[in-house]
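fwd from M.: "can u put these together and see what the complex looks like"

so here's what she sent:
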Amino acid sequence: MIEIKDVYKTFGENEVLKGISAQFKPGQNNLIIGGSGSGKTTLLKCIVGLHEPTKGTVLFDNQEFTHMNFEERVPIRKEIGMLFQNSALFDSMTVEENIMFPLNLFTDQSLSEKRDRANFCLERVNLKDKNKLFPSELSGGMKKRVGIARAISMQPKYLFVDEPNSGLDPKTSILIDELIAELTEEYKITTVIVTHDMNSVMGIGDHIIFLHQGKKWWEGSNKEIAHTDNQELNDFVFASKFMRAAKSKL
Amino acid sequence: MREMVSVGVGSLGIICIISVFIGAVATIQVAFQLASPLVPKSIAGSISRDSTILEFSPTISALVLAGRVGSSMASEIGTMRVTEQIDALEIMGVNAPGYLIAPKIIAGISMVPLLVIISVILGLTGGYIACIVTGSIAPTEYIAGLQDGFNSVIVTVCAVKAVVYGFLITSICSYNGFYTEGGALEVGQSATRGVVYSCIMILFADLMVSSLLL
C-alpha cells in the first residue's frame, strides 16, 4: 500500500500541491484525475521521488520514502514500474533491450533468462514479434505497450502510469486501460494512474481522487462519481454533452 | 566504447580535412612572411611545426569538435531529458549523470588527444604538400626545419591541452543537455549554449595552459 500524508509542493511562489493525503491499496486501479494544472503529474512525481515534496511524506508499505537518500531508495525503486506519458523508451535500444534494461541493472539472470522474461512481457502486451524493432519504428499505442512491458519486467509491487491514453485513438486507449487493469488484478499491484480520460475514469476507476486547485477535492469510486453533488467534479467529469447524456441514463 | 567510436571515428573525417588545410596554409603564410634573404628558409618549417603542435592542431580541432561532438552530446542528453528518458532512468534507481555523462567524459579525454595526434601528423603533412605544390620553400628545407631545434615540451603542452579540451567539451555540453527544460526549442538552445560555453572555455584554457607550461 502507498500512503501520502499532507503533501505540499511549491515551485518558487507557486504552491501546486496543498496538503494532499491519500491511500492507494494493492489490486486496485487508483486514479488521480483533475483539470490541466491541477497538480496531478506533480503529485505523481512527488510519490515516485522525481520531485521532493516541500512538506509531507510518502510511505511505501509503511517505509518512509520521502526522506530516504539515493541508496536507501534503490530497494523500493526495484519494486516500482512506471509508464510515462511519452513512453520514455530508450531510443538507442531495441524493444527487447528496453525491457531487459531493468533486468540488467537489478538481476544476475543469464542473457537467455532475461530474453525469455522480455519475450514473456512482450507476449503479455500482445507484441510478441516486435522485440528487434527500435522505438522509432513503433506506433504510439505500441510504444505504450512496450512501456508497460518494461514496467512489469521486474514484477513490480507498484505501478505508476502517467496519462496512458494521451495521443491514442479510443480503441487503443481502451486496450491500454484493460491491459493495466488486468495486470493490476493479476499481480495484485498497487497501481496509480494519472489521467483526464473519462472513459478510463468510468471504465477502470476503482478508487478515484479528484484534484482541484492543488487540493484533494473529492474521493470515491467510478460507481459513486455519477451520483456526486460535488459541483467542480461534475463540471469536470460531465463537461461534454455525451457524458451528460450518459449520466442522465444512469 | 560506443561513445569512443562516436567521438573518435565519427570526427576523424572533419579533423583530417581541416588539419591538412591548416598545415598547408600555415606553411605558405610563414614562408611568405619570412621573405628576407637573411633568414634561412628552413625556419618556416620550424615555425610551422611549433604553431601546428602548440596551437593550430589542438585548439582548432577542439573548436571544431565542440561544434560536432559537443552539440550532438547536448542535444542527445537534452532530448532524453524532455522525452522523460532520464526520469525513467532515475525511477529505475540509476544514477543518471554517472550513467549518461561519465562515458562521454571518458570518451572525450581519451579520444580528443588521439584526434589531436592525428591532426598534428596531417598538419605537418599538409605543410609538406604545400611546399611541393606551391614551391614557397623547398621540401627538403621544410623537412630540415621540422627537425631543427625541436623541444619536446611543446608535445607535452599539446597533450595537456588535448586532454583539458576533451574534458571541457564533453562536460560542458553534457551539463547543458542534462539540465534542459521544455521541448524541442530548448534542446536546440541547450546545444547552442553548450557549444558557445565550450568554445569560450577552450580559449580560456588555451591561455591558462600556455601561460603555465610554456
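replying to her w this: Chain B is about 85% helix and 0% strand.
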